[in-house]
Amino acid sequence: MRYRPFGSDGQAVSALTLSLSPRDVARGPQAGCELIYSALEAGINSYRLETADPVLAEILGEALRHVDRKLVQVSLTLGAGDGRRGSQRDFSAEGMTESIDRALRVSGLGWFDVALLDEPADHELPQSALNALKALRATQRVRLLGVSGEGEVMDTYVSTGAFDVLATAYHVNSAWQVRSRLRMAREQDMSVFVHGYYPEELATPQKAATVHGPKRGLFGLGGRAPAGPLAGSGTFAFLHRTHNWPAESICLAYVLTDPGVSSVMIRAGEIERLNQLAQVPDRDMPPGLSAQIEMARIAGVKAA
Predict the structure, then answer these.
(1) Closest CA to 98 of 69, 132, 49
(2) Conformation bin of residue 272: beta by default, left when phi > 0, alpha when psi is -120 to 50
(3) CB count, 10 Å around CB of 102?
(4) The predicted structure's pLDDT at residue 82
(5) Which residues touch 11 (CB under 8 Å, ≥6 apart)?
(6) 3-class DSSP state for residue 172?
(7) I need a surface site. Which of 44, 88, 93, 137 has the fewest CB within 10 A?
(8) Which domain range does residue 105 map to?
């Protein structure tokens, strides 16, 4: 596992962050703990709770009970509900404070390194909520404040300078707006966590071969794709044709080449899948693969 700088106090965060949701503990607390133990053995020291579900927080706290708390980073997602039936989005000062206090109480973690707001719309986050979060930070129950999302409103939140962490989707085919957002966040001295590195549009050979492919002409005529060795040229078809490199691993490795990315959030409900992804940070992409990715990405810009 590789590690990168995180925050302003010299901490280090693993290149991968294990993102945990209620589905990861659906088979019971023991299975959830075993997944986290495997992540620790792989060198992952960063964990994200996708909801404020107290059961999820308790399982993570139990799994990390014998680990020096200062050596692990834990983020709690706020505003997305607590994962239980009937829970709703809530960015009120009272709701977020209660979620943090309850999760700390059941987990025994002592503090959360990041309170991560789940894509609040521009009307969802009142000033009283920000004041409450700053109070929580002042009392060391939360160390850093972050915002997570993909919409244009993220640019507004980044520009305020009120947040320490940005979490957003980023992948080989991300639009220039996303890349600009990441650059702006780094200029604001924000740590950048990314997710969505393997988008659905690239998940199968068929889908990857049609990204940026020739468009049909009038009445569906013309624009026939090349056959034979040239099939899939100008697209991301090569992602599924690289020896000893699954397409998902290539996409993950590409995102990790960006030095401005602190950590990539992965979802891995099975230990085997977790171990496969955990090997990627230590691997170097095959020669020429980065160039292929850039050529396919530029072809997409021209086709747009």
Answers:
(1) 132
(2) alpha
(3) 15
(4) 62
(5) 5, 73
(6) coil
(7) 88
(8) 3-199+246-284
Neighbour-count burial of 43, counting CB atoms closer than 10 A to its CB (0-12 exposed, 13-18 middle, 19+ buried): middle
Q: Which is nearest to 80 in space by CA: 88, 72, 92, 71?
A: 88
**What is the count of structural domains for the chain?**
1
Residue 174 tokens read as: 């991300």
What's the rounded Cα separation, in Å, for the pair 242 and 296?
15
Report pLDDT for 210: 81
Assess if residue 227 is contained within a domain. no
**The two three-digit tokens of residue 245, written as one number:** 């490199």
Q: What is the pLDDT of residue 217?
A: 44
User: How far out from the chain centre does Cα 66 lie?
Assistant: 26
Identify the residue whose tokens are 């997602």: 77
Spatial distance between the Cα atoms of 49 and 114, rounded to a whole number of angstroms: 10
Q: Residues 252, 253, 257, 260: is their CA dihedral positive or negative?
A: positive
> Is 55 part of any domain?
yes
As given in the structure block, the two tokens for residue 91 are 């960015």
The structure tokens listed for 35 are 């997944």
- CATH number reported for the structural domain that contains residue 78 in this entry: 3.20.20.100
For residue 287, count other CB atoms closer than 10 A to its CB. Answer: 7
3-class DSSP string for 111-128? CEEEEEEECCCCCCCCHH
pLDDT string in tens for the chain (304-residue length): 999 988 767 789 999 999 999 888 888 899 999 999 999 999 999 999 999 999 999 999 999 999 999 999 999 999 876 655 556 778 889 999 999 999 999 999 999 999 999 988 878 888 898 899 989 999 999 999 999 998 888 998 899 888 999 999 999 988 889 999 999 999 999 999 999 999 998 988 888 888 754 444 444 444 444 444 434 446 888 899 888 899 999 999 999 999 999 999 999 989 999 999 999 999 988 888 888 888 887 765 554 4
* Residue 221 within a domain: no
